[in-house]
Design goal:
The protein is α+β, with helices and mostly antiparallel strands. It has ten helices and 18 strands.
Length: about 400
Amino acid sequence: MPEPTTIPTFDGSHFRRVLGHHPTGVCVVTAVGRDGRPVGVTVGSFTSVSLDPPLVAFLPSKGSRVLETIVEAGRFAVNLLGGDQVELCRRFASRDRDRFDATPWRPSPLGSPLLIDAPAWIDCTLHSVLEIGDHALVVGAVTDLDVERPTAPLMFFQGGYGSFSSLSLVAEGGNGGSGTERAAGLATHLRLADLARPRLEEVSARFGVNVAAAALVGREVIQLAWVGPDAGTHLGGVRLPFVAPFGTLFAAWETDEVREEWLRDHQDDDLVRRTLLEDLARAREQGCALLPDHNSLREIEARIARIATDGHLPASVRELDLQIADFARRHVSLHGEQPRGISAPVFDGTGRVALTLTAHRLPELNADRLDECREALLEAGRELTEIISGRGPRLTARPA
């Protein structure tokens, strides 16, 4: 054993300032006392401890009234807070003893308070308490838990509150280069989307459909503009993985390396891979791409709308990836079905697709109106290509 050393003393403000560089999640721990009154406190030290058995822990001050109540009750609940609940967090961090008067709650299975609208909760019996310095380590044995409202969590960092944003889900501008170059690339896409917006509005008004402009940025397809009847769902800015069969037009005029990346989830399925490569050849020949209507595509659209509302949570994006991969397998048997989406390209000066213009949710259009909508999108794409001095291909066939 090493020899004990003298514990150094630090200025409290300096200690907090340095440790403040580590962000922490925020929750409210609650319990009910012997008198039947609920108590709760905001905690930034909550953590999982063990999976088998399931244990969690937090570290309240040793003089905490909530700690005393938890020890007496032998149970407590953890309410994980969302990024939109700063006011609730501050309420339970204050000295106000009537904080529950303004806070709706319901009892957990063990009877501890569960705060209404908290994204998730964990119900615990008291496992153990260990004094550590001026705090206590409270370990709870998890008896039940659930997610009520998937959303980004509340975080505490350097004395302030904020929400979570995964860097892996933040769009990069361009396919490489420095951060400055990537940002400049995204800015170029945004300017092009602004040029496209009047044409999107014309197509939307003429055919009563949703129309979007999207760009390939890194490994994501970003919807930079969204107009039409569903514009209120704020689908502009949604980022989707560049994975087959979505983003066909981008893959059709990209390098072999980029196309292989697009096909990465289907390396071991020859039928799916062959069908997708045929889609790329058809897109190059006809100058547009179609997405067939299917229930799984509608489910994907519903999840995209939820992501737009709740944020790009890692779990939601992983589920979307699985849905897209499943749709790609179904896509093999869907050729000839009524299309749900039509996409037309806008080309840049290198002959690559700088932007796609896509009309969504088309099954209500008859064949003639569908052809008219497709031609309107293609014409808009040709106009924008000319405006930016792009170089589009010569088409050898009209869309069938």
